Amino acid sequence: MKNHEYRNGRLIQTNKEFSALTKKQKDWIQQALKERYIKTMKSSDVKLKPNKRDQILEEVYDMIEEKDIWIPFGEVKKYYYSKISSFIRSHRKQHENLN
C-alpha cells in the first residue's frame, strides 16, 4: 500500500491514472474542459494563452473535487493538454458548419 494514503478519512490511491476513472467520469471531465475552452476562444483557429488555459484547468479541477472524484491534478493536466488541439478542430468544424 505504498501508493495509498488517508485523506479526509478516505483511503486514496496517489498514483491513480486518468484511464482508471469510469467512462461517465471521463466523459464529464472531457465535456467540462471542452465547453469552457471553446467558450473562452475568440477565434476558431487560435490556441488560448497559457494563463487562460491554466485558469480553465483550475476551474474544472475545482469542479472535479466538488464531485468527490479523486484524480491527481497532473493527470487531468496531461489529459487536458493532449485534447486542446481536438477542441480547436471541433470548434473550427462547428464554426464552418454555421457559415
Structure characterization notes:
- The chain has 99 residues and is mainly alpha-helical.
- Helix content is 62%, strand content 8%.
- It has a two-stranded antiparallel sheet.
- The radius of gyration is 16 Å and the shape is elongated.
- The model has no long low-confidence stretch (mean pLDDT 86).
- Keywords: Plasmid.
What is the structure about, briefly put?
This protein has helices spanning 23-40, 50-66, 73-98, and strands at 4-7, 10-13.
| Count of folded domains | 1
Uncertain spans: none
- Proportion of strand residues: 5-15%
The average pLDDT is: 86
How many DSSP-defined strands?
2
Structural class per helix/strand content?
mainly alpha
Largest sheet strand order: 1-2
Main sheet?
Answer: 2 strands, antiparallel
**What is the helix fraction of residues, given as a range?**
55-70%
Number of helices: 3
List the topology elements.
Blueprint: E1 4-7, E2 10-13, H1 23-40, H2 50-66, H3 73-98
Antiparallel strand pairs: 1-2
Task: Name some characteristics of this structure.
single chain, 99 residues, mainly alpha, two-stranded antiparallel sheet, 3 helices, plasmid
